[in-house]
Specification:
By secondary structure, the protein is mostly helical. 71% of the residues lie in helices and 5% in strands. It has a three-stranded antiparallel β-sheet with strand order 2-1-3. The protein is globular. Bound molecules: phenylalanine (PHE).
Amino acid sequence: MTADKRGMHGIWSSRWTFILAATGSAVGLGNIWKFPYIAGENGGGAFVLVYLLCILTAGLPIMMAEVLLGRKARMSPIHTMERLTATAKAPRFFAGIGWMGAVAGFCILSFYSVIAGWTVYYAGKMATGAFSDIGGEQAGAIFGDLLADPQSLMLYHTIFMLLVGVVIARGVHRGLENAVRIMMPLLFIMLILLLGYSLTTPGFSQGFNFLFSFDFSKLSQESVVVALGHAFFTLSLGMGAIMAYGAYMPADASLGKTVLAVGILDTLVALAAGLVIFPIVFTNGLEPGAGPGLMFQTLPIAFGGLPGGVLIGTTFFVLVVIAAWSSAISIAEPAVAWCVEKGIGRGRSTFVVCALAWFLGIGTVFSFNDWSNNQFFVHVTPTAVEQADTRSVQLPSAEWFVYADVAELKLQYPSTESVSFQITGKTFFDVLDFLTANILLPLGGVLISLFAGWFLSRRSVADDARVNNAAIFEIWRFMIRFVSPVAVLFVFIHGIL
Ligand code: PHE
């Protein structure tokens, strides 16, 4: 029951345009900013391996499923899932996939825009030559100053959201295609250039080993959940972005190769970014677990040390802005498409969606300064301090709070000679990040795989998929029915408990 061949939002001009747009969606801050810093926080190699496994077992099959579902109904994810659920006579809650995706989309767009704002700031700062010949300490200070200043953060958040709105309002088709066609190849070239630089740094082998030596003792339960969540985030899965783009895909294009191309490109960019960043980390004595600031504290050092670094650095950050831009557009598109189907004009729909996400983004702006101590799910963990004479110390019990002011907690639990208190919690930004990447996206992914695997008949799926190679189709169908949902649920349930 393929709906009207074109749908109301138009169709990509070719399979290649779809690949470009989907790659534009997939390649973004997730690859260049997030992947290196979460790999750093989770100990490197083993994390990377788990992440790659998640891409293979869950990411690629679910991506195919999303494109397929979108193309079948040719509507926004909310309407697509409502319609397909009805025609397949599947349990009604599958229709909720689209709604859950919309919620996830708002949350992601809100913080994505704030972080993308940092890259806008860095593009400008680079151009002024502020980073020439700087070391780790100065790079850290410049970044610290930016985060401490909510007004600047707000300004760049606003600029970025406006950029996103302008393109979406014009229609994804015209607005996006041209940008992506030129910028994606350029971004690749820049990454290769940077890779050349990082190869010459003394820390290269250390950086390489950090990413590719699989030390499983460093892998915690939570790391596995984070790796899975990131596989969804980086491929733009579980919230409808790829489903929305699939709705604009030509009916005769084959799914298998198309999706594989997007998945491979996305993974290569992430690994390249890691291979650029970690050698610089080790060469300059920085912390691999530095968190969200990792990219901003390392790359400027590389540019500062390169001949022509001002130009190269500025170009690079402009490209990152564009990569983030093309991703942000795909995050907003499902909600905008839904509004349009409800009869609201495209311009007005764009305004409403972007304004809401902008407003929610204020929480992320303050997470890095005024509200950095206002945290949720705060754990206070006492540990015994090693002492010269090892009489056993009576440890107080661990505690946790749904919400707490961490600065006050630190006063309440001062570390002593025998006990030190570790206080960890999540800022507003951390909560949004965790809720979306680690809960909503995987959950959306499981539901999508169950729906595509168990509620659509083999025949209708085979017709829609246009996979030329029968073996590939069989492998996909096996993965989407058995492997993907089981793998995701297993990690998910383990992690949540
Ligand atoms: N995949 C994008 C990135 O890696 C982020 C994204 C998430 C885009 C979810 C769309 C949907 O930056």
